Amino acid sequence: MASEGGLSIDPMHQFQIVPLFGEGPLHWYTPTNQTLWLAVTVLAVIGVLVLGSTRRAIIPGRLQSMGEVFYSFVHSMVEDVTGHEGAKFFPYIMVLFTFIVTANLMGLIPGAFASTSHIAVTATLALAVFLTVTLVGLYKKGIGFLAMFWVTSAPLALRPILALIEVISYFVRPVSHSIRLGGNMMAGHAVMKVFAGFAGVMGIGSIVPIAAIAAIYGLELLVAVVQAYVFAILTCVYLRDAVGEAHH
Amino acid sequence: MTGDLVQFALMGKYIGAGLATMGLGGAGIGVGIVAGNFLSGALRNPSAAPGQTANLFVGIAFAEALGIFSFLIALLLMFAV
């Protein structure tokens, strides 16, 4: 594509999933760049948290303070948003946040594969959140969980319409939850590749797109952390619907 | 003749995908309103601002969600239709 034009770089090429060893069709067991970077992410998270928590020094070293910052940040977020009752879901939110933030930042390493830019990864995470919230809500509140669709503060005539809207918005939650993360990651990486394509054809003027790439890279570092935070805090908000008191 | 029709359909697909991305402008307006109002509120009462950052991000996320649907339509047009 676009071989005769000025743009010789296909910005979507970086998201291609290819097998690690040789060519050939992809099976579910084929090790690909996707599985490699997911594994690297998981090992990095485990490494930081396990190595950081084995020493347990009074004066924390680098790894330990990193683990402590992660822990206290996520813990205060869960307690603030879901309340005391939801704090027992802290391990789940911790896993989600640390995994997503590490995967996002790993994807920004030049040459690395951005695993969270794939909807398949983020949709799996979002569907797991959706199922957890639904099952926990039905288990905790029984049929009373459905009361969150029946907005009692609204006039009676409006309630059926609002109930319909609430049901629809409940079921599109996993869609927006997953595409927000995947789309942000994919768009950022594609924008950087597009600017890299400009840099290749502009000669001495390519200093402008290169400076732009540096600026966008800084923005992407921010986006990587913010999107992981948004994913985790939205999970907390959804869990509050399931375990907390009705707030409508 | 059929080749022309295929090209024509492809053109419609790309134009449609491009039009669908315009919905993200609305998401940009929404996020800007949320962040701007947060900032004006935070400058009036700076001591209350740190406790509201979670609400800020949730509001931004909900405003962004509707723009994401237009992005989804663009993706569907590009890769699924």
Order of helices and strands of chain A: HHHHHHH
CATH architecture of chain B: Up-down Bundle
Report the CATH topology name of chain B.
Answer: F1FO ATP Synthase
Strand composition percent of chain A: under 5%
What is the C-alpha radius of gyration of chain A, as a whole number of Å? 22 Å
CATH classification class of chain B? Mainly Alpha
Structural class of chain A: mainly alpha
Mean pLDDT score of chain B: 89
Report the C-alpha radius of gyration of chain B, rounded: 19 Å
The residue-averaged pLDDT of chain A reads 87
**Which range best describes the helical content of chain B: under 10%, 10-25%, 25-40%, 40-55%, 55-70% or over 70%?**
over 70%
Rounded to the nearest angstrom, the distance between the terminal CA atoms of chain B is 21 Å
Assign an overall shape of chain B: rod-shaped
Structural topology:
The complex is a heterodimer of chains A (248) and B (81).
Chain A: H1 33-55, H2 62-86, H3 90-107, H4 119-141, H5 159-171, H6 173-201, H7 207-243
Chain B: H1 2-20, H2 23-44, H3 53-80
Helix pairs in contact in B: 1-3, 2-3
In short:
The complex is a heterodimer of chains A (248) and B (81). Chain A is 68% helix and 0% strand.
Folded structure, characterized:
The complex is a heterodimer of chains A (248) and B (81). By secondary structure, chain A is mostly helical. Chain A has one domain (13-243). Chain A has seven helices and no strands. The longest helix of chain B is centred in the last third of the chain and has 28 residues, at 53-80. Chain B is rod-shaped and about 70 Å long. Chain B has one domain (2-80): F1F0 ATP synthase subunit C (F1FO ATP Synthase). Chain B is built from three helices and no strands. In chain B, α1 (2-20) runs antiparallel to α3 and α2 (23-44) runs antiparallel to α3. Chain B has 81 residues and is mainly α. Chains A and B meet through α2, α6 and α7 of A and α3 of B.
